Amino acid sequence: MSMTIQIKNLTKTYSGDGVVTIALQDVNLALHEEEFTAIVGPSGSGKSTLLQLIGTLDAPTAGTIHYDAVDVCKLKGKTLADFRFASIGFIFQQFHLLPTLTALENVMSPLFPRKVGYDKKNRAQELLDWVGLAHKQDALPSQLSGGEQQRVAIARALVNRPKWLLADEPTGNLDTSNGEMVFQLLRKYQREHGTGIVFVTHDRHLASQTDRRIEMRDGGVIADTMG
Ligand code: ADP
Ligand code: MG
């Protein structure tokens, strides 16, 4: 059966200096692994907040998020860390590579503190090869182009073969052709591995090539279009 993320009545507020910001208000959504889903909407509409909550990086003010039967808002500590490691990969607009590590070491880095049932270096090389950067495995991030750095970050996000990949404007710092390349890599990965992909973007052209577009405004979902 296909995996689903079920989001119910999700609300997130931030308060500070006596000001309360409602970043998300009563969002209800079901995300399906077989759909490449884009989330679009103007700056400040709550896209990153939604992705962070889905990714268990932050906790909601109200509402629930279930990955199939698992209520992730109830997970804590090591259980949460283990769940996230097995289930979720992230990529961001900023590539967040560690500057003193090589491309290969960056891809391996999520595995450093973990016990896994496969050879870490072989796995990292497999992913680097898959993003077309086997020949750059010893390069430092500063020696790579933006598009190459993002491909290293994609390999790192996928190194443990997570069930879901959450991408927050991964093409936002790239030119059109590198953005297209990154997008097509994600598309290909989803088709090959059935990994659920949630892709936040400002790029209407890329969003139009996904299976589903969720449009946000002022912390809510205002449209949800398939095809
Ligand atoms: P988007 O990704 O669509 O640009 P965000 O989710 O980043 O939107 O932000 C939604 C709203 O929440 C904005 O008004 C933003 O200023 C506010 N916000 C986001 N993160 C924080 C935070 N850590 N503290 C206070 N306000 C925040
Ligand atoms: Mg954002």
SSE arrangement, N to C: EEEHEEHEHHHEHEHEE
| Shape annotation | globular
Q: What's the CATH architecture name of the domain at 4-93 and 162-226? A: 3-Layer(aba) Sandwich
Output mean pLDDT.
96
Total number of β-strand segments?
Answer: 10
The named CATH superfamily of the domain at 4-93 and 162-226: P-loop containing nucleotide triphosphate hydrolases
Low-confidence stretches: none
Strand content is 25-35%
Main-sheet strand order equals 6-7-8-3-9-10
Spatial extent as radius of gyration: 17 Å
The CATH class assignment of the domain at 4-93 and 162-226 is Alpha Beta
N- to C-terminal distance: 21 Å
Tell me the CATH topology of the domain at 4-93 and 162-226: Rossmann fold
- Bound ligands, each once: adenosine-5'-diphosphate, magnesium ion
Main beta-sheet strand count, sense and barrel state: 6 strands, mixed
Helical content band = 25-40%
Structural class: alpha/beta
- Given the structure, what is the number of helices? 7
Describe this structure in words.
- The protein has helices at about 45-55, 75-85, 105-110, 120-130, 145-160, 175-195, 205, and strands at about 5-15, 20-30, 35-40, 60-65, 70, 90, 165-170, 195-200, 210-215, 220-225.
- The chain is built from seven helices and ten strands.
- The strands form two sheets. Strands 6-7-8-3-9-10 form a six-stranded mixed beta sheet, sandwiched between helices. Strands 2-1-4-5 form a four-stranded antiparallel beta sheet, covered by helices on one side.
- The longest helix is centred in the C-terminal third of the chain and has 18 residues, at about 175-195.
- The radius of gyration is 17 Å and the shape is globular.
- By secondary structure, it is an alpha/beta fold.
- Helix content is about 30%, strand content about 30%.
- Bound molecules: adenosine-5'-diphosphate and magnesium ion.
- Magnesium ion (MG) binds near residues 47 and 48.
